[in-house]
Amino acid sequence: MLTSYARKWQQMRPLPTIPGAFPLVGHSLMMKSNGREFFQQIIHYTKNYQHQPLLKLWLGTMPVVAIYKAENVEVILTSSKQIDKSYMYKFLEPWLGLGLLTSTGNKWRSRRKMLTPTFHFTILEDFLDVMNEQANILVHKLEKHVNQGAFNCFFYITLCALDIICETAMGKNIGAQSNDDSEYVRAVYRMSDSIHRRMKAPWLWLDFLFLMCKEGREHKRSLEVLHNFTNNVIAKRTSEMRRDEEHRSADKDSSSSKNKRRAFLDLLLNVTDDEGNTLSHEDVREEVDTFMFEGHDTTAAAINWSLYLLGSYPEVQKQVDSELEEVFGKSDRPATLEDLKKLKYLECVIKESLRLFPSVPLFARNLNEDCEVGGYKIVKGSQVIIIPYALHRDPRYFPNPEEFQPKRFFPENLQGRHPYAYVPFSAGPRNCIGQKFAIMEEKSILSCILRHFWVESNQKREELGLAGELILRPTNGIWIKLKRRNANES
Q1: 137 and 177 in contact (C-beta within 8 Å)?
Q2: How far apart are CA 93 and CA 100, in angstroms?
Q3: d(CA 92, CA 290)
Q4: Biased-composition ranges for Basic and acidic residues (predicted)?
């Protein structure tokens, strides 16, 4: 082991690095444990070394290479060989198993091929009713803040996204917006926090040590709640589908399930691979739990950041207002898929928000073989961290990168931009399979909020307290004021 480490140390020596690494512990003693301070530290390093194509760190005996230049990001993300997620993703496996996010190799390729059709736009259209209903509940919850003082909207949006993901993933309305103290909701948040804390604490990486401590025991209890909930939903839906099939066989004219909404779960229970094999109960649970994990926090963060930026740039919000007026007039009818397609400027707002505040601020790959990036050899077994937060601020592609300018995403302004300069949903073979779903949900919720309210932000950017955890989170929340939309017209 020491020989392997010494060999890697020697092979990686030419790569640009930060001074202060020690043998065996590397830069670990320098790294901040607090999520907010750690993220600021990483961003500070990428700024100081922006003239370099990449940056090497040692976390213990593990070489970690940060990349934040489009041409180097392309090398990693376009590779059909470098598709294994980082070692850190193993801490998601107790909850998510080896689903689409965490699996590798042939299992990932087969599963990706099976699941891609379930995110076709005609299927996503079935989910829009749920999004509209939950967005209206959110608007009702926000009413009490109209013409009042500033309030933190982050948790409101997150509960709305959780309700949407539960109903679209499992066909189960958990009513998180009405009951944020439900056992399942609490377990989701305890589990997410536990995973993040474990990732930052090397002494908790060994399973037997982790399970001996209080943190590990709480993790196990949350896991039981989450898996029991999903298992029960799958079993119930499987039974319903079997019963419906029997009714259809007995009565060709039966329409007992004709009007029932489809959920992601229904699609998983029917999907087959090239040999005609269906997914096992455990396979289905892996994908439902993965959809739950990936689909609520990330979307909620994107909506919150969009609201913050719109509230900070009233001239942009006025343009969104004009577009909403053009599409909906004074009507408060639910948005249709055609309506959402017409909201071109709002989509540019969302994309620019994701440029400045990508929901996933960094993600990583484990190198399966040696790889040349930016003129340097990175050895097999290294962890490569891609940092969209820094990548999206490259002035070569985004002049005045800290400015919020949705026009950057007008079609005429996309010409000549490097295709890997902007990767909020990753890119290449392991890009986010649910990105169309996410954009549709963000447009649905934002359009509903902005048709009712005018938003004013109550924080300067330096007051947000950015923390790059599993998602990019404002440790101080998102504080906004609301006014009645029509009352603001002048």
Answers
A1: yes
A2: 11
A3: 9
A4: 238-255
Residues 6+ apart with CB under 8 A from 168: 127, 130, 131, 263, 264, 437
On whether 166 is known to bind a ligand per the annotation, the reply is no
First to last CA, the chain: 71
Angle between helix 183-199 and 214-250 (nearest 10): 130
Residue with tokens 């302004």: 413
Task: Give helix then strand counts, H and E, for the chain.
Answer: 19, 11
Q: How far apart are CA 180 and CA 448, in angstroms?
A: 22
Better-scored residue on pLDDT, 266 or 121: 266
Q: Domain map of the chain by residue range?
A: 2-488
In the DSSP assignment, the letter for residue 280 is: P
Residues in CB range of 410: below 8 A, 6 or more apart: 348
Burial class (CB in 10 A: 0-12, 13-18, 19+), 457: buried
191 residue type, one letter: M
Write out pLDDT tens, residues 412-465.
Answer: 999 999 999 999 999 999 999 999 999 999 999 999 999 999 999 999 999 999
Residue 278 β-bridge partners: 272
Tally the C-alpha atoms within 13 A of residue 293's C-alpha that lie toward its C-beta: 29
Question: Using an 8 Å Cβ cutoff, are 430 and 457 in contact?
Answer: no
Q: Tally the residues of the chain.
A: 490
Q: Does domain 2-488 have CATH number 2.60.40.1180?
A: no
